[in-house]
Design a protein that fits this description.
With about 350 residues, the chain is of the alpha+beta class. The protein folds into 2 domains: about 15-200, 2-Layer Sandwich (Fructose-1,6-Bisphosphatase, Chain A, domain 1), CATH 3.30.540; about 210-335, D-Maltodextrin-Binding Protein, domain 2 (3-Layer(aba) Sandwich). It has 10 helices and 13 strands. The strands form 2 sheets. The protein has an 8-stranded mixed β-sheet, with helices on both faces. A 5-stranded mixed β-sheet has the order 10-9-11-13-12, sandwiched between helices. The termini are far apart. The structure holds 2,5-anhydro-1,6-di-O-phosphono-D-mannitol and magnesium ion. 2,5-anhydro-1,6-di-O-phosphono-D-mannitol binds next to strand 3. 2,5-anhydro-1,6-di-O-phosphono-D-mannitol binds near residues 120, 216 and 246.
Length: about 350
Amino acid sequence: MNQHDKLALPVGTTLDRFIMRKQEDFPYATGELSQLLRDIALAAKIVNREINRSGLIDIAGAYGNRNVQGEDQQKLDVIANIRFIRALRNGGEVCTIISEEDEEVIQTGNVQGKYIVAIDPLDGSSNIDVNVSIGTIFSIYRRVSPTGTEGTMADCLQTGTNQVAAGYVIYGSSTMMVYTTGNGVNGFTYEPSLGEFFLSHPQIVTPQSGAVYSVNEGSSNSFSSGMAAFVTYCKEANYSARYIGSLVADFHRNLLKGGIYIYPPTSKSPNGKLRLMYECNPLAFIVEQAGGKSSNGRTRTMELRPEDMHARCPLFIGSKELVEKAEEFLAQEEVVES
Ligand code: AHM
Ligand code: MG
């Protein structure tokens, strides 16, 4: 290809255009969900900028702990929380937000808003200091209470099967946003010089099987017998162990290449560590839309009843055959122990 042809290449489909096109597929769509997704993408760009500068902020410690607006400098997960909430509040489509970073429900004041958002603004944030990929995970529900009032606990504690959209942003060697509205999964890569996400991974389909298992084996002393047997099975089958310790990064790799991510019950976290509303449900929706599977080892993640907005649950997620294999080992443990 000569230089002229290269220059004439189309730049591709931007996230905004893609969202608009998808909206046209639904004749009665009002555009509110589209706007909401764009609000999230905008906040993601801002958070991406903050993350990229985080090393420099440490170096700039000599300037004191205040940023240019005179605000005290805060940890990035707090900043990310503020950014996403602000974007969702300003957008107007969301009545209520629940966030891993906030103990209480957040009412945006937009009582006409039709949507509820559950968000983990910056997952794996302990990895920031060592320049390892981190992510944002979000989930969108339609409210069940009437518009014109504040969102209720019933709005916030819906089962995962009610999600209308879910996605994540991975801040890694490149920044990507991956999302589903229940009609397949699409991935967009951020082009920093243009300030846009471009469609780079259309219709992601996850491999039915894989040869990667991702689990913190440091906790293996407290694995159940079924869980321990599954890990032994993976080793005997010569699978590769890959565990970044940053859920979005581990999940993203396995989604594209095949594999299973597990956060099982351990003595330290008897219910697993990950949160049903902010981490497990959104990734479960995505993996299922890509042809994979997610459960707590026994029950489909998206059918678990959330008892509390911060509830935790075990997570077995990834390629269908591997998740089913792990479930077989867990079922076997019940037979042996009964
Ligand atoms: P966080 O929400 O406090 O960031 O914790 C979630 C993170 C996940 O990204 C990661 O997969 C997991 O915790 C790692 O936990 P562990 O260090 O116990 O293996
Ligand atoms: Mg988290």
